[in-house]
Design goal:
Helix content: 40-55%
Strand order of the largest sheet: 4-3-6-7-8-5-9
Number of helices: 20
Radius of gyration: 28 Å
Strand content: 5-15%
Mean pLDDT: 88
Oligomer: single chain
Largest sheet: 7 strands, mixed
Order of helices and strands: HEEHHHHHHHHEEHEHEHEHEHEHHHHHH
Structural class: alpha/beta
């Protein structure tokens, strides 16, 4: 392992080791698992082997070419993360008179940038791509200073939605986010969501939210919308399998950012086949989950009792003709009709179930009703026509039996015949009582 060249490159190699490399049990610097940092370490001569610095520099640019960010932006992110890992926060870096540790890390980061910029001067011209040469030439410290460059690499300050993928937080986006005022019906559920997210955003409890319902009730969209409605919250979309994975690796980068509030969202999990060991260990177990991280777990099935005791349960009532009418009423109220005529509400709900009967959609659920109501939102003529019909003598109502049969079939497919038998016995007892 030979450090590249002298002068700026040698100083950069020393600073890079300080920022990114850690000694193993034998005292040798370990190379980070990050592909970009590996390539930069190789370019600075910190890796064993015979590969030329130019080959590592080309490899670093390939990391940038695989995504939307430029090489300088990716390096800025790594530099910022390294400072945070050493216990320095954005405010420390940006201070007019930074504390000793922050000043020390700023100096080291500046040395890395200056050294990387100087590498094309020593690389073999026939081995370095022209685009690579141009990319490294743009890595010098900007006129507004190294602190501004590093704080610009704060990914959590630039974006609010991330995916947790292969141990890293990758920028993401949600295509169907809507305002919390665009949800209709289920007032008790919506009240719990609003209360829970608002209190967490304000610095309150990070008690996990455990959400379950039949498919199509809005578990995902309610979580996303309420998280993004609170400006203090950053949303992390975690794949279901990460719920059983290494929680220390997952939460450590978030724990280091007490200046942010994170919702860690595990969507569409199956509680029956989930290994809950890591969750139970980190939530109310041997370790306490950092106060700036709140898990939200959504499922189509019930959670085990020992998991429910560690969070706040939210269960959607079954979507039937009553909830259907409530949603229609709320929808009409959004147009200023606070006390919509009952006949109008019945007609719209009945038209929705008629479309289902004609197989225009495959499920009776809040999801399909929301889509159906959207057809009225931008069609004033359609709304007026339905209002005129509501003054007629014959008013159709939504078919309660249709909802009942659909829900029974859906629950049978999800939960099995034994569940349906128990449900029917409970209903019979209620009727007898």
């Amino acid at each position: 392992m030979t450090t590249t060249g002298g002068g700026k490159a040698a100083k950069a190699a020393q600073a890079f080791r300080l920022l990114f490399l850690h000694p193993d049990r034998s005292g040798n610097p370990t190379v980070p698992g990050d592909l970009l940092l590996n390539a930069l370490a190789g370019a600075l001569g910190l890796l064993p082997g015979n590969a030329a610095p130019a080959e590592f520099m080309n490899a670093a640019c390939r990391c940038a070419n695989d995504g939307d960010a430029k090489l300088c932006e990716l390096i800025d992110e790594r530099m910022f993360d390294a400072c945070v890992a050493h216990g320095v926060l954005p405010g420390d870096l940006a201070a007019a008179d930074p504390a000793p540790d922050a000043a020390f890390l700023l100096k080291a980061a500046a040395a890395v940038y200056d050294g990387l910029e100087s590498l094309p001067q020593t690389a073999a011209a026939d081995q370095l791509l022209p685009s690579t040469r141009a990319a490294f030439a743009g890595l010098s410290t900007p006129d507004n200073g190294i602190a501004a460059r590093l704080t610009g690499g704060d990914r959590f300050a630039r974006r609010r939605v991330f995916q947790y993928v292969d141990g890293a937080y990758m920028p993401s986006r949600v295509d169907a986010n809507k305002g919390v005022d665009k949800f209709f019906g289920f007032p008790s559920v919506r009240a719990i969501f609003a209360d829970h997210f608002h209190k967490f955003a304000a610095g309150g409890s990070n008690l996990p939210l455990l959400v379950n319902s039949l498919p199509g009730y809005g578990k995902t969209s309610l979580t996303v919308s309420h998280a993004l409605a609170e400006k203090e919250i950053t949303l992390i979309l975690a794949p279901p399998e990460s719920l059983c994975g290494d929680w220390k690796k997952m939460i450590t980068p978030l724990k280091r950012r007490p200046d942010h509030r994170f919702v860690l969202f595990f969507d569409d999990i199956d509680p029956r086949s989930t290994d809950w060991y890591e969750f139970r260990t980190n939530v109310g177990g041997a370790f306490n989950l950092p106060g700036n991280i709140m898990p939200v777990i959504a499922a189509n099935y019930e959670f085990p009792a020992n998991i429910l005791s560690r969070g706040r349960k939210v269960s959607f009532p079954v979507f039937d003709e009553i909830r259907c009418l409530e949603m229609v009423e709320d929808f009409l109220a959004s147009f200023g009709m606070r006390h919509a005529p009952r006949n109008l509400v019945n007609l719209i709900a009945a038209a929705y179930t008629e479309d289902f009967g004609q197989k225009k959609f495959t499920e009776l659920s809040p999801r399909t009703l929301t889509r159906y109501l959207a057809s009225y939102e931008h069609d004033m003529i359609k709304r007026k026509t339905m209002l005129d019909l509501s003054f007629g003598k014959m008013i159709t109502k939504p078919d309660a039996q249709l909802f009942y049969e659909f829900n029974i079939d859906l629950m049978r497919s999800l939960y099995g015949d034994a569940y349906i038998e128990r449900l029917l016995k409970e209903r019979l007892k209620d009727l007898e009582g």
